[in-house]
Write a structure and sequence with these properties.
Layout lengths: L2 H10 L2 E7 L6 H10 L6 H7 L5 H12 L5 H17 L2 E8 L1 H6 L4 H17 L3 E9 L3 H14 L7 E5 L11 H9 L3 E6 L5 H10 L4 E4 L7 H10 L3 E3 L1 H6 L2 H6 L10 H6 L4 E3 L11 H10 L4 H14 L4 H18 L2
Parallel strand pairs: 1-2, 2-3, 3-4, 4-5, 5-6, 6-7, 7-8
The structure holds zinc ion.
Length: about 350
């Protein structure tokens, strides 16, 4: 199978996307549309220029700028509708979408009307064959009190399709232990937990996410490349890394882990896979990183994994999704039928 044939087959598979930020998926054309709604003339070139940056703080700044256009519940509904279109086009049938609830509260927005609007978009999505679940996250640098607020809201918003609680933002800003109360509360109230860790931080940050914050999945986790014992622990405890390789390249996280400029083919994805570290592939902030889920699979091919190995990874996303056992079996059955048909 050539690389093109492999990519084509992987595109056809019905996939799950487990690490995808709603705000980071907003394409420049949609920002232009949002700006127009709010009476601001913004050109596509101006919007696209905002998506160019060279380091992690630059990315966070761009993220903040994009979210400044999410002012009304209808704005969130629009971007969720666009996301559904994009996911449907890539044969993504299930996505857990991270929503920056911490940013929403920081801006003084009312979460309930927003999540009502998101739930409407999710209903429409289901009709298009894409199921969305929401994973509100806290912004680490906003600190533990803001985090507790987000946790309380996340639990209250379960009726709108919230399934998980997570943490993103600046990993190096505040110690994990400060967030124990928020994650305890979320877990005790039935939310599943994921934490961005070991993206720009070290292996210890991954351990702390697992030991202190109930993390059932780790966002990125590339710092595990430095620590074989940690990789064995991840495998033993069956805690997957949500790998987003293009993101790691674009934010400079990969270079930070190496302490020097790094190329995509140095990414530890292949090492993790070969060692049996559980993992999934995701696009993180696809608009901001100029990628797609298909782009992540293409990157996997470029790193030397073959179509069958990448199909195994695609399958794992359903195994680690925060869904019921019955739903998992249904998705896996459809996935396996498609996989057989495609011969990968
Ligand atoms: Zn992320």
């Amino acid at each position: 199978m050539t690389r093109d044939e492999s990519l084509h087959a992987l595109q056809q598979l019905p996939k799950a996307e487990l690490h995808l930020h709603l705000e980071g998926a907003i394409r420049p054309a949609t920002v232009v549309e949002l700006a127009r709604r709010h009476g601001e003339a913004l050109t596509i070139e101006e919007a696209a220029a905002r998506y160019q940056y060279s380091d992690f703080p630059g990315f966070l700044e761009a993220f903040k700028w994009v979210t400044s256009y999410l002012r009304e519940p209808g704005d969130f509904e629009l971007v969720a509708e666009r996301l559904v279109e994009e996911l449907a086009g890539q044969n993504v049938v299930y996505a857990e979408v991270i929503v920056a609830l911490g940013v929403m509260l920081w801006r003084g927005q009312q979460p309930e009307p927003v999540f009502r609007a998101l739930a409407r978009a999710a209903d429409a999505g289901r009709k298009a064959g894409v199921r969305l679940a929401w994973a509100p996250d806290i912004t680490r640098q906003f600190g533990p009190e803001a985090a507790m607020d987000v946790a309380r809201w996340a639990v209250r918003l379960k009726e709108f399709g919230v399934v998980a609680f997570g943490m993103g933002g600046d990993e190096l800003s505040v110690a994990a232990r400060e967030f124990r109360a928020a994650f305890d509360y979320a877990a005790e109230n039935g939310l599943r937990c994921t934490v961005h860790a070991g993206e720009v931080g070290g292996p210890e940050d991954i351990r702390q996410a697992m030991e202190l914050l109930h993390a059932e999945r780790i966002g990125h986790g590339i710092a595990a490349m430095h620590d074989a014992e940690l990789r064995r622990t991840l495998a033993r405890q069956d805690v997957p890394l949500e790998v987003c390789s293009v993101s790691n390249l674009r934010t400079g996280a990969l270079a930070k882990q190496f302490g020097r400029p790094a190329k995509l083919d140095e990414h530890p994805l292949k090492l993790f896979f070969r060692e049996g570290v559980p993992l999934t592939l995701s696009s993180d902030d696809p608009a901001m990183f100029h990628t797609t889920l298909a782009g992540e699979y293409d990157a996997g091919l470029a790193m030397g994994l073959d179509a069958t190995e990448l199909a195994d990874i695609a399958q794992a996303a359903f195994s680690y999704a925060f869904i019921s056992q019955a739903q998992r079996e249904k998705y896996l059955a459809a996935f396996n039928r498609s996989r057989d048909d495609l011969g990968i």
